[in-house]
Structure formats: structure tokens, C-alpha cells
Amino acid sequence: MSERRQGRDDGEGQGLNARIVATGADLLRGLAGEKPSLFQRDRWVGRIMDWSLGNAEFRTRLLRFVDVFPALSTSRALSHHLKEYFGDMGGPAPGPLRWAMGAASGPLAAPFLAKVIRYSIEKLGQQFIIGDTSERAMKSLSRIRSEGCAFSLDILGEAVVSEDEAEAYAGQYAVLIRDLRGAEGKWPALAGGGESRDALDWGYAPAISISLKPSSLHSQIRPQNFEGSVEAVLRRLRPLYEQLIEARGAMCIDMESYAYKGISLGVYKALRKEYPGYRDLSIAMQAYLRDTGADVEDLLAWSEKHGLPVGIRLVKGAYWDYEVVRARQNGWVIPVYTEKAETDAAFERLARLVLEHHDTAYLAAGTHNIRSIAAVLELAAQAHTPSDRYEFQVLYGMAEPVRRVLLDRVGRVRLYCPCGPIVPGMAYLVRRLLENTANQSFLRLMFSEGTDAGDLLRDPAEAVEKARDPQASTARKARALAAPPSSDLPPFENQPPADFTREEERDRFREALARVRQKLGRTYPLFINGEDRATEETEASTNPADPSEVIGWVCQARRIEADEAIAAASSAFERWRNTDASTRASYLLKAAGHLRARRFELAAWQVLEIGKQWDQASADVAEAIDFLEYYAREMERLGSPRLLPSPPGERNYSLYEARGVAVVIAPWNFPLAISCGMVSAAIVTGNCVVYKPSPLTPIIGRHLVEAFSDALLPAGVFNYVPGRTGEIAEYLIDHEAVSTIAFTGSTDVGLRIIEKAASTRQGQFQVKRVICEMGGKNAIIIDEDADLDEAVPGVLVSAFGFQGQKCSSCSRVIVVGAIYDVFVERLMGAAKSLALGPAEDPAFALGPVADDRARSRILSYIEVGDKEGRVLFQGEAPEGRNYVPVTILGDIEIGHRVAQEEIFGPVLAVMRAATFEEALDKANATRFALTGGVFSRSPDHLEAARRSFRVGNLYLNRHITGALVGRQPFGGFKLSGLGTKAGGAEYLLHFMDPRVVTENIARKGFVPEADLEDPC
Ligand SMILES: Cc1cc2nc3c(=O)[nH]c(=O)nc-3n(C[C@H](O)[C@H](O)[C@H](O)COP(=O)(O)OP(=O)(O)OC[C@H]3O[C@@H](n4cnc5c(N)ncnc54)[C@H](O)[C@@H]3O)c2cc1C
């Protein structure tokens, strides 16, 4: 909606704003100096808030402590964490904290201290949560209604990680609706509703109202599976809605993080359409999202088109920090406004839009901000919105004076009331604490900072306008330009993977799959010395989900073609080595452009040729682009000679030089990314490449030919020779003209390559160098205080993502102490919820393994595991083809084969450890050192892991796969590799030999003057 529609450019805007300010001032007067209990210092909760507001360090630690608190089941754990979290806090600590710290040191006091802390946190919880049991909740609701407020009830809970948990959650709602029905008879209708039994609140609103989060009804919501996710949520929601209709209740669909927005809207529209006669269904819309303007307009148009009135709860949005961080981490456009005033202005704009459509739309304004409330009141008056077409909503426990003044002036106030056990509801509590202590929170500014009324009521649109002021932005631009660019290239940034929350990206992927399907069955030649080279013999590359489906026919190189490729590379070498480093880098950048332009299609090939899920395939293509961009910049850095310490009369330089012909032997599991990484590193450093793709993914490998041909890379620099491993791989490795071998794959093969490369052949002029990334037996430690809401999905994606076929995959999980049973139960529930099927269909979380050989090998390991320990859980797999059921093995000890050997499939061994130290020992007790992870909220344990968890890539409190170029240079040591780090600053050095040139620049004792003045 344009600014003009809001009336800012005419007199109306000025008049409207004046009225909003006057109403706001009136409301502020109505607060009469009263403070919400949150900000009353004579109350325990108020004191905690006060300390948090005054001390940012304390606030951070407190939020973290509240977060870990549910996991601290013993007094000892509690006092230990208290010391860890607050023991070293500098500056004056609040009195009770000092007391608690003292008490934490005495062993006898620990149980007492635990009681005090539990009591305090429960008190804090009670501030925002109306009851931990249904009985208490009903009592609170009776009180709330007797005070004149309506309610909407929401059940708090842990994150739903499995379908069993989602089912249980839906069950809780069913019980809640039943209890509400039982209690309703005792509640007279609110103001104006009349006395009869059928009376409605305010004459039109049902007394029973619930709020509900779609993500709690289905554990497998995935944006790429949009329709499937909507339908799965609806399957659990429909019976609840029908029960609610029978109880004549209302429902609001809460809005969660941005990733779920489209799905929530889809659920809302579907439900509204299925039950057209029942209109007490609303949806929360977040004003802080840039998209929401269009979404609200779309919803209003949809409502008019279908003749279905809609209810909109307009809020600002509760996940601001999360959205900003998530977008930054993925390189996506930040979906929220980044200036608070922009959100406030959007709230007013959207409120106006809904109020103007009062014939078909009902507005629930969810805010505690007096300016926003006043704006809604004045906009409603201006739009002649009848009073039964809008209400106000506030959160329970947040702003009692605001609630009171709204009740006095408007009458229609609804409290959003979370209920449920306080401990699992901790995530909600942390969000509320964050919100109230945020610098720009209206409540903080008003009740804690004492900001004056003029500032509190200022028109947010004015502030937005000011920020757009060309003079202000010119000054910003000037500041930005003042910093000179460090090189001609912009700094490296990771290529964002596809964002499937966006409909257009889902459509593009679907279209790409359809396009690729039309290209199936073609024949792919070799590429040698800049030309395609057909061979008589071809091999079919097939779809692992349906091995009878041929993706394409691939020409097979024999020794003669391998010789030709090596000859082509050898003869191109000298010229290529002497090509300026920047020029070499420029070819990589052009190839990156080629891949970027085709990123959906390239990902679609991976879905069909190797069974990667949409998101996994998209991430692989993004990584390939990253390697090209990153290594191009690295070569710019390393390409010029570097001056070394040089006394007068002498010049010392170091420089790097290419080694010669590099053979690249690539795996199938990251068919484009790893191939592209090894090939581009070799090429940009001045080597010429003979590239052998995996026999399972030769067609994806062929796309590198297209990328480098498009970049006009000189002939002979890159040669593509797919072929049988037995026929040409060893031949290439043994070849006397080869100087470097870059390999990624299993440890057995890697070690054989190292051994073979070590023996010198007749006619060989160089010691061969092997750059080798091999296997892993990666472990994740689950500490006793881990956040299982994060740990379970983290382990799941690490162990079973792409069917566990990544060298970084987790294959062992080591669980510390008493948390074992809960963790394993939740993990098994989550694993049970993963559906297996063709990767092409985004409904499936997992797909087939690479081929029949892989399947047989994995199944035989499962048999071994069942003998060594036992199968704790085995999922279902479609019959035939290359599917392997997700399997979790229990009672596994460190000496067992399944705890030592790489399986490379969806098999996870669970082990126990009594202490964190024992867990670390077990994690380190293999031949491998690739990736590892820890889920813990103990600062001491995290530090111990940093120090002694010996792996190439250690991840703390996150999944252990998905390393990003530049951010997490990837590679291990021990038998996992030779310590090279792909995507890191040292990687290119492995493809080059260092040289030093020393020159005597004195002539008969004469040294140039400049050299005397400025010796290095
Ligand atoms: C009844 C009710 C139901 C709710 N339901 C939901 C829901 O379903 N989903 C949901 O996400 N939230 C929900 N909320 C929370 C709501 O989104 C707000 O977080 C909360 O109400 C604070 O907004 P305010 O107007 O009261 O306070 P204010 O202090 O005026 O606004 C704070 C809000 O401004 C925004 N903001 C803060 N900093 C910035 C910045 N730098 N740039 C841009 N914007 C910024 C954030 O949204 C923040 O929450 C609900 C709130 C209520 C009252």
C-alpha cells in the first residue's frame, strides 16, 4: 500500500496524526503512573528485570541460565551451573546472586539453594504463564474473565521433533477444549453480551478461544514440501477445529518464524474454505515482515473473492533477532524491517488496511504500545469501523496498566494466555524476557527508561521518512565510500542456497526437474584437449531411486584416452603455468557465473542422478560456486611474489608455482561441489587437470566441462575422462607424468593412493603429492544439560541427512549420564517420523542410497551391529531398489566394529558415557579425526571440548554437516586425511611448489639509494 493511501501527503495525515497523539496522551494519562508488575522493583520479578535492564552482561547470562534450567535435574548440577554462569561475573552482582554464589560453594547448602532457585524461576514463569495444570488454568481464566477480559489460550511445550510428539500435542489441545467446554458454563458473557446461556462476549465473540502453532502439529514441516506440510498440519488440525466448532469456540493460528509463514497462511485458507460457515478463525500477521503488506492485501482480496470473512490478529512479530541471524547466516535477504520505526509504521499501515475492510475483515490488534493502540483507535474512527469489528489483545503478565486502560476506554480486551508446565515452557519465557529487556521495547522505554510522552507518541512514519532523507543517506554513502576496497574483487560471500520458503524458488526447482527429465537418455562424450571425444563403449548412469531409469549414457575412457588426456594436459601446462594468476582466477569467476545461472537445473540433475533431496542438492551447487569464487580470490592473494626480509644489496622473494599435471578423482556424494573444489584449486594455481568423476555421477561431472568451456578456458587445461575405476583410476595415479593427485573418498582407497604415489616410476621427474580427504567415524556428544529440542534435530540431520552418506555425517552419538533414556526416546520418535522415498518428491525426508552395492554393505553392517549390540530402532523402507531403513543401534561399545568402521549410510550407533570426560575419550578413540560435535550448555565442558576433542572440524551446539567455504574450512587428520582444509586459506598451497629467488642487486659495491634507505 502506498504512503499516499495512508494520507500522509495531504492534510488528512497531519490531522490524523494529531488525533493519534491526543488519544495516546489521553491513554498515557489513564495509566496514572501505574507500573506493570514486571517493572515494580518491590517485586521479585521486577527486581530481576531491573538488574537485567541495568546490566547487559547479567541479562545475557540470566537468559542463558533460564534456558538451561529445565535440564538441571539435580541440586549438584544446579549449583555447578550457577557457578559456571555467574562465578566470574565482573562488576557488582545483585545481592541475592552474591548470596547464591556463596551458598553454591557449600555442599550442604546445595539442595536448599536448588529449592530457592527453582522457586524463583517458577515465580518468573508464573508471571507469564497462567497455570501449569488444566485446573489452575481454568481458575486463572475465571479470574481473568471476572476482571472483564476475554482470553485466548495457548499450550506451551517443547519443540515437536516427532510425529508422536505432534500427536500428543494435538491430544493436549483436545483435552483443553473439553475442559474449556466444561468451565464455560460458569462464565457469564462479557460486557454487552446479554444474560442468556447462549450469550456471546460483547454480543458477538465466543468465550472459548484458543491459539495454536502449526509447527506443533507436524514434526516434518519443510518449506520445499509446501503442499504436503499444509496437508499434514490440517490432518491434525481438522478434528480439533471440529471439536471447537461443536464447543462454539474460536481459534487463532499463531504466526511463527518466517520459514513457516507460507505454510501457516496455507493452513488458514484451507481451513477457512473447508468450513465456510464458521467464521471464528483468525490468523496472526507480523508487521515486521516486509512481505506482510502484500500478504494482507492478498488475504483481503481472497476473502472478498470467496466470500469468506477473515480474522487478522495484527502483531509486530516475536522472532526479530532469530530472523536477522538466520538470514545473515544463509546470505538471504533479511525478511524483517531493521528499523523499529519501520515496523511500527507498518503496523499502523496494516491496521488501517484491515479496518477499512471491516465488512469482511475483523482486526485483533495485539500490541502493548500506546502509540500503536491510539493509532488503531483513530484509524477505526476514521474508517467508521463498527466496534464489533475490532478488539485489542495483550499478552498475559506483560502490561497490566495497558490492559486496564484499554478495558476502561474500549472494553474489548483479550489476553493471550499460555498454559502448561513452566519448565518446558521456558522457551516462551526466554522470548518474553528478551522482548521486555530489548532496548527499543515500548514497555521498557515507557516504564523503565521514563521516555517522555512526545517521543513515545511520535509518528513512526516520520522517523522512517527521516531515515530516507537523501542528505542523511548521502552522508552514509560517503562514509561507506571512504573505506577503499582492498582488492578489485568484492569480498568473498557464500552463495545463498535456494530459499524454499519462497514460492518462486519452489516453482523454479520444479520446472528445473521437468526440464532435466526432458534431457534424460542423452549420450555424454569425454572432453580432451578442448574437444568432445566419443568412445564406442558407453555406460548407463541411472537413478538410484529407480535403477531402471537411465539418466544418460556416458562414454568410457580407457587407457588410450587417459594417455591422450595426460598428453593434452602436459602440453598445455607450460603456457598455463605462465599465465598471469589474475587471468587464471578470472576463468574461475566466469565458470562461477555459469553455475550460478543454472543453479536450479544443476541441483535437479543431482536429485535424479544420485538421490539428493532438493535442499541438499541446492546446497551442493552453492558450495561449488563458493569454491570457484573463493579460490579465485585466494589466487589473487597468493599470485604475486612476496618480498622476504632483505638486507641492503639483496632482494629475496618467495613465490609459488604450479606442479604440473593434476589428476582429480572425485566422489559421488558431493558430485559437483567436491569435484569443482579440487578441479578449480588445481586449475587456478596453474596446473592442468585430468578429472575422473565418480562412475555414479558422471553426468553431473560433465557440467564442469560446460562451465569451463563457457568460460573459454584454454584447451588442455581441463580434461574430463569418466571411466571404470579399475580401468583408468590406478593407471592415472601410476602415470609418470602426473605430479599431483587430489582425491576425496574412502580411507581404504585413499591409503592405497598414497602408497602407490610413493613409488617412483621409470621416467618420473617429480615426487607425487597426494591431497587426500578420507573417511570419518564422527561422534556427537550429548551432555547431561543439553537442550534436547536442539540436540535431537541436530543429531538427526547430521546422521541421516542425505541418507548418512557424507564423510562429515554423524555415525556415533555418545550420551552422558541420566539424559540417555529421554534423549534416545525422543531420537527414536524423531527417526520414526522420517519418510523414505524418491528425492524428487519433497515429501520425503530421505531417499535411496547410492547403489545396490552400498545398500548391501550397509545392511551387512546393521547385522554386525545387531550382534555386537542391538537394534534399538529400525524404520521402514520401500521394498526393492536402493532403500535402507534408518537404523539406530544401542549397547555399542568402543571396541565394536560399528563404533570403529565407516558405514556411510543411515545407521547411528548410540553409546553411553558416565561423565563428559569419558564421552570425550570415547569420541577420540577411533582412527579418524574428521568432524565432531557437542551439545552442552556447560561453559566448562564446551571449553574442554575445544581443547581436547581432536577432530578437523568441531561443532558446538549445532549439527556437524554442511561446512561452508571460507567459514568452516573442511578436512581432518589421523586417517581422515592429510590435514588439508578445503575452502580454507592454506588449501591452494598444496597444489603448488614454493620457490625463493635471491638476487644480489649491488654492482661492484654500488647499491641503489632507495634500497639503502628502506631495507626490509
Ligand atoms: C495477543 C498477542 C499475540 C501475539 N501473537 C504473536 C504471534 O502469533 N506471532 C508473533 O510473532 N508474535 C506474536 N505476539 C508478539 C508480538 O509480535 C510482539 O513481539 C509484542 O507484542 C511486542 O510488540 P509491541 O507492539 O507490544 O511492543 P513494541 O515495543 O512497540 O514493539 C516491539 C517489536 O518491534 C519489533 N522490533 C524491535 N526491534 C526492531 C528493529 N530494530 N527493527 C524492526 N522491528 C523491530 C519487534 O517485532 C518487537 O517485538 C503477540 C502479541 C500479542 C500481544
Low-confidence stretches: 1-9, 474-486
Mean pLDDT value: 92
Radius of gyration: 32 Å
The total count of strands amounts to 30
Strand count, sense and barrel status of the largest sheet are: 8 strands, parallel
Beta-strand content estimate: 15-25%
| Silhouette | globular
Order of the strands making up the biggest sheet? 1-8-7-6-5-4-3-2
Helix-residue proportion:
40-55%
Quick gist of this model?
The chain has 1016 residues and is an alpha/beta fold. The protein contains 35 helices and 30 strands.
Can you characterise this structure?
There is one protein chain. This protein is an alpha/beta fold. It is 46% helix and 15% strand. The strands form seven sheets. The protein has an eight-stranded parallel β-sheet with strand order 1-8-7-6-5-4-3-2. The protein has a seven-stranded mixed β-sheet with strand order 23-24-25-22-21-27-28, with helices on both faces. Strands 18-17-16-19-20 form a five-stranded parallel β-sheet, with helices on both faces. Strand 7, helix 15 and strand 8 (413-419) form a beta-alpha-beta unit. The protein is globular and about 105 Å long.
Throw out a few tags for this protein.
disordered N terminus, globular, 46% helix, 8-stranded parallel beta sheet, 30 strands, 1016 residues, binds flavin-adenine dinucleotide, alpha/beta, 7-stranded mixed beta sheet
Topology:
Blueprint lengths: L10 H21 L12 H11 L1 H13 L6 H12 L8 H11 L4 H19 L5 H13 L3 E6 L7 H22 L24 E4 L13 H21 L3 E4 L7 H14 L6 E6 L5 H15 L3 E6 L4 H11 L9 H17 L4 E6 L3 H13 L7 E6 L4 H10 L3 E7 L6 H12 L4 H7 L4 H4 L3 H8 L2 H13 L20 H16 L3 E3 L1 E3 L2 E3 L4 E6 L2 E10 L3 H19 L3 H17 L1 H12 L3 H25 L3 E2 L6 E9 L2 E5 L7 H12 L3 E5 L5 H13 L7 E3 L4 H10 L3 E7 L2 H12 L10 E5 L4 E5 L5 H13 L9 E7 L3 H13 L19 H17 L1 E5 L12 E4 L16 E7 L2 H9 L3 E2 L1 E5 L3 H10 L4 E4 L16 E2 L17 E9 L8 H5 L3
Parallel strand pairs: 1-8, 2-3, 3-4, 4-5, 5-6, 6-7, 7-8, 9-13, 16-17, 16-19, 17-18, 19-20, 21-22, 21-27, 22-25, 24-25, 27-28
Antiparallel strand pairs: 10-11, 12-13, 14-15, 15-30, 23-24, 26-29
Helix pairs in contact: 1-14, 2-3, 3-4, 3-16, 4-5, 4-6, 8-9, 9-10, 11-13, 13-14, 13-19, 21-24, 22-28, 23-25, 23-27, 24-25, 25-26, 30-31
The structure holds flavin-adenine dinucleotide.
